[in-house]
Design a protein that fits this description.
By secondary structure, the protein is of the alpha+beta class. It folds into two domains: about 110 residues, Roll (Ubiquitin-like (UB roll)), CATH 3.10.20.120; about 70 residues, OB fold (Dihydrolipoamide Acetyltransferase, E2P) (Beta Barrel), CATH 2.40.50. The strands form three sheets. It has a six-stranded mixed β-sheet, with no helix packed on it. The chain has a five-stranded mixed β-sheet with strand order 8-7-13-10-11, covered by helices on one side. The radius of gyration is 27 Å and the shape is globular. It comes from Staphylococcus argenteus. This is Exotoxin.
């Protein structure tokens, strides 16, 4: 047998013995296409991943900048935090000093006279201690209509909570743990209370400014349901 033939036979026997695949350079799976994140999702992610600040049992001072524009000023650690009074807050808080307040502060992406401000998140301080957990059920839905379920706890430590606070905290958790505004870009949050209350937040939109001041009895939250859908 010629040397070339012997070499071919030896190579074939070696492949059979070792199971070596000589075509490993061929891709087994096609590469996944990169996820295209919309400008809307980027903007929402930027807003809902920023830091929030909470003040408990504090005092607010009303200032009227213009006839139709009022702010509540909360002074903490030599810092003045401005809260624009919009929606129900504008009707409820008039001139003067307001004590015994809880504040949930998140800076808006707009400025007033160059200064940062928040909207909503103002509630009365607790009359008694609250330590409850509301269950959040998350349903992840893909393009084929297949579902994946998960749960996480939502801490309730206030008698009253603003829709702003609930919406912000739930969305931030969804961004950090469930890919919201990445591979998951839309869906909704539904808060259900024991007295048949129902509050819905659409995940492809920022919470409306006039709803940021809406308040619910947080101790009555029965469950929170979330559906997130793939982009």
């Amino acid at each position: 047998m010629k040397m070339k033939s012997i070499a071919k036979v030896s190579l074939a026997l070696g492949i059979l013995a070792t199971g070596v695949n000589t075509t490993t350079e061929q891709p087994v799976h096609a590469e996944k296409k990169p996820i295209e994140i919309s400008q809307n999702s980027k903007k929402l992610k930027s807003y809902y991943t920023q830091s929030s600040v909470e003040y408990k049992n504090t005092t607010g001072y009303i200032s009227s900048i213009q006839p139709n524009i009022k702010f509540m000023n909360v002074i903490q650690d030599n810092t003045v935090n401005n809260i624009a009074l919009v929606g129900k807050d504008n009707q409820h808080y008039h001139a003067g000093v307001h004590r015994n307040l809880n504040i949930f502060y998140v800076a808006e992406d707009k400025r007033f006279n160059g200064g940062k401000y928040s909207i909503g998140g103002i509630t009365k301080a607790n009359d008694k201690a609250v330590d409850q957990i509301a269950e959040v059920r998350v349903v992840k839905e893909d393009h084929r209509g297949e579902y994946d379920y998960d749960f996480f706890p939502f801490k309730v430590d206030k008698e009253d909570m603003s829709l702003k606070e609930i919406d912000f905290k739930v969305r931030k958790h969804l961004i950090e743990n469930y890919g919201l505004y990445g591979e998951m870009s839309s869906g909704r949050i539904i808060v259900q209370t024991k007295n048949y209350g129902r509050y819905t937040f659409e995940l492809d939109k920022k919470l409306q400014e006039d709803r940021m001041s809406d308040i619910i009895d947080a101790t009555s939250i029965e469950r929170i349901e979330v559906v997130v859908k793939k982009a």
